[in-house]
Design brief:
Pfam families: MFS_1. With 507 residues, the chain is mostly helical. The chain has 17 helices and 2 strands. A two-stranded antiparallel ribbon has the order 1-2. The N and C termini lie close together (12 Å).
Length: 507
């Protein structure tokens, strides 16, 4: 990494990045690693089909609901302290889940994982934001972080497949202990947090209650929509409750002296554009992970390990887009000129997958589509991650970081429920018109596979549209200049930013 003569820069910052990246990878891949292991865990513990979804939902509800709270805790008590606490708690909860002897023990452990992940994730991103303040280095650091944030879900599918097939489903949870121990050791020895970035205000208890209840209602509403239908009373009730609670939260935040989420963080045009476009992009991506996993294993007959390896081109594309395109160009061009085209390229890759058939070739169709998806998302994620905390007052870095994670977490929950519901409906409609005419068991099985793939392609069309909307939002709302400078808060104390030009990144 490039040396610098600036004595204010932390000499151990690149080592710190390595350990922050390990922690972030652990949190991101945990959203998908358990998906691969779930069938084995269900058989081993005798989990009912009705309770199966709670292995995933317990984690997402706690994680998504407590993120803003975790971000503000990091601002108040210290990001390094919160980071280490989150790591230790996540490791303990993972060990508990790996040792689970019944359904309740596993579900409780998953909820604890989500709660400690809500402490860990915003602390990790805000540590990165306050550690790397020089523009060229910030670009490289966020390039690495963006690649992990974008590709971690796919890495989870690969690692989950390997651990489940060659060891045991429990290792999909135990592996987090290894990640956490390494990250804690590194955090204690090399991570240094600027003391002046603390927020000494009181904790906004009404804001915590309203935000947590509102986000839990929203995430759970999409979960119930998937299982019970969009018109079910419980689904509608949860969405209404979420709207009321989040509206009340916004009202409270505008009135209290020390808000949980200062509205200046989200109403600033550029950050608002990042949160909205990133959330929409994740909706499309999480649905795709689900469909491609089932397509490769059920339709193509791939093993869990081979299915995981089949996602490697997408991971490689994300790393390349983030570190070689996004990071190199971030100090030269405006963020919207990376994010908008990045989402468009991802949408083109998604568009290719609308042509999925039962006998589609992996090399001819799925491979190039994954490369386009990875390149596009990696290029867009990198400036998005950096811009989400760019220009934020140091005392708000944790909660601004939490908003990025919240948009991703809520987007992932919405994407899984929304696109899966669309796919199931399209599959049922296609099958109802054709299965009755099947003349043999083999023909019936083939028609079932065709119905399944038809449902996937219909849902992927929706994902294409969602990514297109993300591209429009990024292009229209994000109007800041390139991040080739440092940020200086104005005397007003608001988020008005003065950019100071510095040389572009060297090749």
């Amino acid at each position: 990494m490039p040396a610098t003569d600036n004595p204010q820069l932390d000499p151990k910052r690149w080592k710190a990045l390595a350990f922050i990246a390990i922690a972030q990878l652990m949190v991101v891949l945990d959203a998908t690693i358990v998906n691969i292991a779930l069938p084995s865990a269900q058989r081993d513990l005798g989990i009912s089909d009705g309770n199966r979804q709670w292995v995933i939902t317990a984690y997402t509800l706690a994680f998504g609901g407590l993120l803003l709270f975790g971000g503000r805790i990091a601002d108040m008590v210290g990001r390094k302290r919160t980071f280490i606490t989150g790591l230790l708690g996540f490791a303990g909860a993972s060990a508990l889940g790996g040792a689970a002897v019944n359904t309740g023990m596993l579900l409780g452990a998953r909820a604890l994982q989500g709660a400690f992940g809500a402490l860990l994730a915003p602390a990790a991103l805000s540590l990165l934001a306050v550690t790397f303040t020089e523009a060229r280095e910030r670009a490289k650091a966020f390039g690495i972080y963006g690649a992990i944030a974008g590709g971690g879900g796919a890495i989870g599918l690969i690692l989950g497949g390997v651990l489940t097939e060659y060891l045991n489903w429990r290792w999909a949870l135990y592996v987090n202990v290894i990640f956490a121990v390494v990250a804690v050791a590194g955090a204690i020895t090399v991570i240094r947090e600027p003391a002046e970035g603390r927020n000494r205000g009181r904790l906004d208890i009404p804001g915590v209650v309203l935000a947590t209840a509102g986000l839990v209602s929203l995430v759970y509403g999409f979960t119930r929509a998937e299982s019970d239908g969009w018109g079910a009373q419980v689904t509608i009730g949860l969405f209404v409750a979420a709207a009321v609670l989040l509206a009340a939260f916004a009202l409270v935040e505008s009135k209290v002296k020390a808000p949980l989420l200062p509205l200046r963080v989200v109403t600033e045009r550029n950050r608002g554009g990042v949160y909205a476009s990133l959330g929409l992009a994740v909706i499309g991506m999480f649905g795709l992970f689900l469909f491609l996993t089932y397509y490769l294993q059920v339709v193509k007959g791939y093993s869990p390990v081979v299915s995981g390896v089949a996602f490697l081109p997408m991971v490689a594309g994300m790393i390349t887009g983030s570190t070689q395109i996004g990071a190199r160009l971030m100090t030269r061009v405006r963020p919207r000129l990376l994010m908008g085209p990045g989402f468009v390229v991802a949408a083109l890759g998604m568009l290719m997958l609308t042509q999925l058939k039962v006998d589609s070739s992996y090399v001819a169709l799925i491979l190039p589509a994954q490369i386009l998806l990875g390149l596009g998302m990696g290029t867009a994620f990198m400036p998005a991650m950096s811009l989400s905390t760019h220009g934020v007052q140091p005392r708000d870095a944790g909660v601004a970081s939490a908003m990025v994670n919240t948009s991703q977490q809520v987007g992932g929950s919405i994407g899984t429920a929304l696109l899966n519901t669309i796919a199931a409906s399209a599959t049922t409609g296609w099958a109802a018109a054709r299965l009755a005419g099947a003349r043999s068991a083999a023909e019936l099985q083939q028609l079932k596979l065709q119905a399944m793939v038809h449902g996937y392609s219909v849902a992927i069309w929706w994902a294409v549209g969602i990514l297109a909307v993300a591209a429009v939002i990024a292009t229209v709302f994000i109007n800041t200049g390139h991040q080739g400078g440092t940020t200086v808060a104005s005397g007003s104390g608001q988020d008005e930013i003065e950019e100071i030009a510095v040389p572009v990144i060297a090749h």
